[in-house]
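Hey,
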Amino acid sequence: MSRSKPIAIVAGVAVAAAVLGLVSYTATKPDPRAGSAAAEASAEPTTGVYPELESYARRDASDGLALGRADAPVVLIEYADFKCGYCGQFARGTEQSLVAKYVRTGVLRIEWRNFPIFGEESEAAARASWAAARQGRFWEFHKAAYAKGAKEKGFGEARLTALAREAGVPDLAKFAADSASPAAREAVSADQEQGYSLGATSTPSFLVNGRPIAGAQPLDVFVDAIESAARTAKAKGTKAAGPSGTPSPGAPVSASPSAAAR
């Protein structure tokens, strides 16, 4: 491999990081006085597209923290925190619409990245979500953790167990062990490092086929980004194989109705 390609990728990441970092921080920066997401607010979206960043999508058909076809032409990567109020707003509203309109028709894949920034309980909730994914219940856990009023109850050990039970996690002993495991910490850390490498400093932050979007933007912002990315993918000859709405292995679209009912 020539040296020019990795240099170009690094340059692309650096530019995206500078833009996303600035917009993301001003969009939803945590308030150190409150120790919560109270200071989050909307901001203008980032509009530049950086093709080099498309490689951040894992497209792993066995990824329990992803929803939709592994071969979907568009991948939305979401960096979020379960204690983030605007992340919950996105999950209950905009994301529902995106799942119904694009995930179920095979156009979009959503890949979750744990990006806990609000302290110890954020970290614990992130590890718990990873543990739920180990038993195929991540999106059900996601729905429970982002229900209205859920974050106000905190994410202590007993509360996380209650959320796992609500999510239908079958083996709670395994859930507890997985949540406390080094593997959970490593997985969350890997997600965090990816987010930080983009300059994300707050939540939610997104990539749509290499296009950074900071903050819980209105639905139209995501629709425009997805439609544009889909057109570009089509022009390049990229398309999702198989009938519309058919999930790839490890992407439980129809098997996880809660994902579309948040």
